[in-house]
């Protein structure tokens, strides 16, 4: 009986093991390959360093981005060759290393005719020099020559003879008390301000601007005509008034617009 019971228990276990289907060890599942957490940032840092080193080499070490040509634009009296020579851009140097600020300062210092200049990189091989020249509003006698004066009162160039269409500034400062406040430089500014506000038709016929004090300015026109302008105040109104008087009284030789609301003419 005991043997039979044992046999029965044994048979039951066999059936149970067959039914469950697990006669051996469990198979291991495949695992995805993962980098250790600390290696990810290190590899990323290495990649960034390599990319940075490559960029630096391209900009500074390679021959791909080097200065090969320089071009000046915007010149009128100056020639592009003059500007390019003074700029002295280092041909063959890395384009990124060109100090544009130093070149701009050099051009303004050595070529006073330049009012402003912009030095720009023209990738991959060029440097551009965008020049704006000063324009003379008046000329002043300087010994046997003449100085050109721009709208800011800057004397920027010396020429052999007066320019056609540019009035001559005759500066004769008085010794009045106002001279302390209105020195020579201030009088020059007053004169160029007046000349710059003249209507085109009047400016075309203006031969000289005479100034002794800030409120004593006279214009000498073609044909022996003269205009008492007064000060630089109400310049636009004075210009319109003078234009109207010159049309209405073309044979007059003296005009007074120092008080533009009460002008006067005389002579014929």
Describe the protein.
This protein is of the alpha/beta class. The chain has seven helices and twelve strands. The protein has helices at residues 2-20, 39-61, 80-87, 100-110, 184-197, 200-205, 235-248, and strands spanning 69-73, 114-122, 126-133, 138-142, 145-149, 155-159, 168-171, 206-213, 216-221, 226-230, 254-256, 264-266. The strands form two sheets. It has a nine-stranded mixed sheet with strand order 6-5-4-7-8-9-10-11-12. A hairpin with a 2-residue loop joins β8 and β9 (216-221). It is elongated. The termini are far apart. The model is unreliable at 1-22 (pLDDT under 50).
Percent range for β-strand residues: 15-25%
Element pattern in H and E: HHEHHEEEEEEHHEEEHEE
Largest sheet: 9 strands, mixed
**Computed Rg:** 43 Å
Oligomer: single chain
Amino- and carboxy-terminal Cα gap: 162 Å
Q: What is the 3D form?
A: elongated
Helicity range of the residues? 25-40%
Q: How many strands in all? A: 12
């Amino acid at each position: 009986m005991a043997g039979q019971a044992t046999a029965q228990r044994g048979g039951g276990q066999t059936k149970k093991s067959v039914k469950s289907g697990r006669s051996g060890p469990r198979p291991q599942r495949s695992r995805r390959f993962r980098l250790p957490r600390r290696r990810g940032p290190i590899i990323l840092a290495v990649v960034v360093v390599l990319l940075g080193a490559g960029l630096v080499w391209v900009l500074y070490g390679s021959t791909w981005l080097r200065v090969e040509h320089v071009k000046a634009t915007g010149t009128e009296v100056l020639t592009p060759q003059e500007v390019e020579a003074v700029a002295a851009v280092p041909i063959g140097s890395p384009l990124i290393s060109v100090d544009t600020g130093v070149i701009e300062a050099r051009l303004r210092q050595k070529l006073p005719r330049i009012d402003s200049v912009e030095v720009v990189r023209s990738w991959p091989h060029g440097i551009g020099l965008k020049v704006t020249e000063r324009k003379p509003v008046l000329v002043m006698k300087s010994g046997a020559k003449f100085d050109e004066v721009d709208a800011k009162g800057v004397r920027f160039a010396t020429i052999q003879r007066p320019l056609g269409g540019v009035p001559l500034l005759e500066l004769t400062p008085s010794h009045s008390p106002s001279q302390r406040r209105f020195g020579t430089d201030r009088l020059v500014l007053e004169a160029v301000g007046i000349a710059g506000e003249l209507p085109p038709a009047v400016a075309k016929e203006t031969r000289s601007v005479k100034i002794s004090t800030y409120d004593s300015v006279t214009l000498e026109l073609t044909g022996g005509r003269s205009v008492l302008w007064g000060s630089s105040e109400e310049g636009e109104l004075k210009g319109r008034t003078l234009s109207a008087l010159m049309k209405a009284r073309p044979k007059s030789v003296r005009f007074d617009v120092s008080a533009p609301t009460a002008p006067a003419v005389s002579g014929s």
